[in-house]
Amino acid sequence: MKMKPLQVPKRTIMTPGPVEVDPRVLQAMSTPILGQFDPCFTDIMNEVMEMLRELFQTKNHWAFPIDGSSRSGIEALLCSVIEPGDKVLIPIFGRFGHLLVEICERYGADVYTMECPWGEVFDQQKIIAKVKEVKPKIVAIVHGETSTGCMQPLNELGPACRELDVLLIVDVVASIGGANVMVDEWCLDGVIGGTQKCLSVPSGMAPITYNDRIEKIILSRKKVEAGIATAEDIALGNKKNRIHSNYFDLAMLQDYWSPRRLNHHTEATSMLYALREGLRLVLEEGLYERFGRHQYHEKALIAGLKAMGLEIFGDEHHKLPTVTCVKIPLGIDGDWVRQMMLEQFGVEIASSFGPLHGKIWRIGTMGYSCRKENILSVLSALEACLIRAGATIHRGEGLQAALDYYEAPIAAKENANV
Ligand SMILES: *Cc1c(COP(=O)(O)O)cnc(C)c1O
């Protein structure tokens, strides 16, 4: 069979992932392969760990990627810590909360949930009260909920969990590298990031970090498995259960990422090159400069959408700066508009899930995709396609508002009431 050469159209990707990848990352991916125990390669592994600690703003020793999409990191952390029957409390404020529930249930956890309406976040004190009532071993929660565009504050929950001796495991897949995530300051015990969102690296790795509270559990489970557990290990709540996954066994994975380099899987060489370059780009830009850039373009987008006459979905005080949810005007077929934007303009935005499907669009402003030309492209494509779909909008005003914002002096932008 003769297949034509690989060819893909040029796209402007304004979804909540995967997003456009920086050309420097694409270039790094074409670097020749090294053996997985080649000192030149293990040096790269160490460099990635070092940069991940900076990204996560942590002094944790363990910070390395799991091979697989972001949920592989979620699964690795949860399955290494959860033993059947363990109580896990999961506050749900969107679709990815339900993913945490599903994964915890699969590993035999006794799952307790609390929910708030989609488009809102929890009052942290309410979660803390529930923690006191349920007395779970673990609280698992999403930071940036991609499905609703909301960001859950964690600065009170973390210290409270620490005081109550509860582990806090957080999914920061949609926020890491785009919004502030302070692992140590907020007392987060285990954290999972993603590559294909604000890091602008292809999907295929999930950077995680965890502290010694989690490591202690992992190591004690390993000792039980090896038959060398002490009374203290058993007292840690261990129910003599080995970690139920080989691929996601953090005890084995951390041995592989330690100087001992105990063989586990074959590291995804080209993806590690990509992650290294992606992290280098983040740190070169500066963490806080990068968060500032995400907010800067998010504000331009919101100014444009509002001037067009569209409404933003969700609690704007707890908005995730990397995802903007827009209400689809009544009577308009959201999928038809999205399809036309892609076909005519090569611009991609996202629909939503479950109760929000058909009600909102989600526009990502993540990583390399988060730049002025993309904001202007998405606004112009959306306006044109909405007019074609028969929507009543303020013609021409969206782009003008965004241009006004971009052309205004910096001080005015900081005070922009959008
Ligand atoms: C995208 C996303 C995930 C899942 O990522 P995959 O790479 O598709 O496994 C998990 N949590 C959040 C908050 C996300 O945005």
From TrEMBL:
Name listed for the protein in its UniProt record: Alanine--glyoxylate aminotransferase family protein
Cofactors required: pyridoxal 5'-phosphate
InterPro entries, A to Z: Aminotrans_V_dom (IPR000192), PyrdxlP-dep_Trfase (IPR015424), PyrdxlP-dep_Trfase_major (IPR015421), PyrdxlP-dep_Trfase_small (IPR015422), SP_NH2Trfase/AEP_transaminase (IPR024169)
PANTHER family per record: ALANINE--GLYOXYLATE AMINOTRANSFERASE, AMINOTRANSFERASE CLASS V
Keyword Protein biosynthesis: no
Assigned protein family: Belongs to the class-V pyridoxal-phosphate-dependent aminotransferase family.
Keyword tags: Aminotransferase, Pyridoxal phosphate, Transferase
GO molecular function: alanine-glyoxylate transaminase activity; L-serine-pyruvate transaminase activity
